[in-house]
Amino acid sequence: MTDVNHKIYTMCMVQEGSKVLLMNRPDKLGFPGYIAPGGKVDFPESIVNGAIREVKEETGLIVTDITYKGLQEFCDPRQGLRYMVFNYLATEFEGELLKNPPEGELLWVEIKDALNLPMQDWFKRRFPLFFQPGTFELSYVWDEKSKKKLGETIKNYGESGFKEVDSIR
Fold first, then answer.
1. Per-position b or e across 73-108, b if 16+ CB within 10 A of its CB
2. How many whole angstroms separate alpha carbon 64 and alpha carbon 118?
3. pLDDT, one tens digit for every residue, the chain (169 residues)
4. Is 19 helix (H, G, I), strand (E, B) or coil?
5. Residue 149 and residue 140: Cα distance in Å, rounded?
6. CA distance 71 to 48
């Protein structure tokens, strides 16, 4: 397929000590439940600048230390769609939380307790990877019409190099 529609998004986990900042997104905004800040990268904005901007727009915080953690992508060959989410971890920031955040209620949550909150399965799968050494790559091939996963590749590039965690084709 030569005509591929690429959609580029970011997600930025904001961490302060043993806590992370999550948003409780309402159903009406899609992807309901707890999730990290993020959103679409505006053209021609850089991907990292898109992550920094999204954190500020959704939380009011200005990220001052940010680390690239990995890529999660969803491909639907039938639609010619590649949906890419570049993931970051921010450990330093300044500013105050918004009183009326646009994407949902903001909540500081203990990392060890976060997975007990209601959240999308894809975010639950990705969540622990933000706190592991190195970077990750999660790639899913999906057929939206049949609602079936056609394949997945899951890799972790840790401190000691590449490690294949799981790969299915």
1. bbbbeeeeebbbbbbbbbeebeeeeeeebebbebee
2. 29
3. 568 999 999 999 999 999 999 999 877 766 779 999 999 999 999 999 999 999 999 999 999 999 999 999 999 999 999 999 999 999 999 999 999 999 899 999 999 999 999 999 989 999 999 999 999 999 999 998 898 999 999 999 976 554 444 443 3
4. strand
5. 7
6. 12
